[in-house]
Model the fold of this input.
Amino acid sequence: MTAFDFDAVVVGAGAVGLACGRALSKRGLVVLVLEKEGHIGQGVSSRNSEVIHGGLYYPTGSLKARFCVEGRRALYTYLDSRKIDYRKCGKLVVATNADEVASIEAIFERAVANGVEGLEHLTGEQARALEPALNAHAAILSPESGIFASHDYMLALQGEIEDAGGSVVVDTPFERAETLPGGGFTVTAGGEGGAVVTTRLLVTAPGLSSQDVAGRIEGFPADRIPRGHFGKGVYFRLTGKAPFERLIYPPPISGALGTHYRKDLGGQAVFGPDLEYVETEDYSVDPARAEGFATYIRRFWPGLPEGALTPDYAGIRPKLHGAGETQPDFQLDGAEVHGLPGLMALFGIESPGLTSSLAIGEAVADRLLGDAI
Done:
């Protein structure tokens, strides 16, 4: 029997890659996680809203719906066990006028079908009793939604992998992988920690680089690599006191959840993201976008003061759909898709990927080890 350097190699040390590494480590495997950046969680995982999603929006029966609900339940338990900061503040999905009521009603029905707990219909008056500054014709209350310290979470995942005898190495980009005759892979990594290692199992979860990484794996069919799109979203921070305690979401826009509000763990108000398709990883924030943000925000917060928004940061989501196209599901592609036993390739892990990460990790480990038996 072939002796491998590692039982599993995971490409990408964001929340999902680390959760996959942790799940494999829990099953007794020695895991190596490769990260091209100088620190863990520097890509998609560090440029988001840090929201714990309830699981309201996703098509019933989809991986997004299942993993979001399972992952959210597991995440709160995990955060409690590791004493990681979070706030289960709840979310209001708001219809700002009568025309939007049907949209939020559809969200309510889908959320119930997805198994989301504790949902409530609210009249505009009831919503304003909770959040007096809110403009609401009607609303849905999701009490299970919240925010958390995502980087502390990722550090905890890294610690579990390392405590189990594995390694998380940064500044070490994945270069290529070749299949071995008896099964498994030879993985070549560059950078300061560059090395050639062998592994029985391989997981690719590098976010925006998912298509590029798959193309560097020997034998991965090119027609099985889905086309990727960069969905950029920018955020603006409020100068002044945060107006709401809960997350505030208008009805979703095409291809995303829309520009929403959160009060972060530091007590400041942040709005975003919007959605713009771009060709490159450009994280600049154009101050001129503040005017459009303000117009959108005043639909649910008419009291937004003039000139109170300041540019904050931007994120890019690894989307599998372009402008005007239907938003697809997560892709966790095993040998049944690409024909390479021992490989799990993840594509399109955008929102609610952070909330779903523990559930995704468990699913990846179960499928890989089931395939390997």
The mean pLDDT is 95.
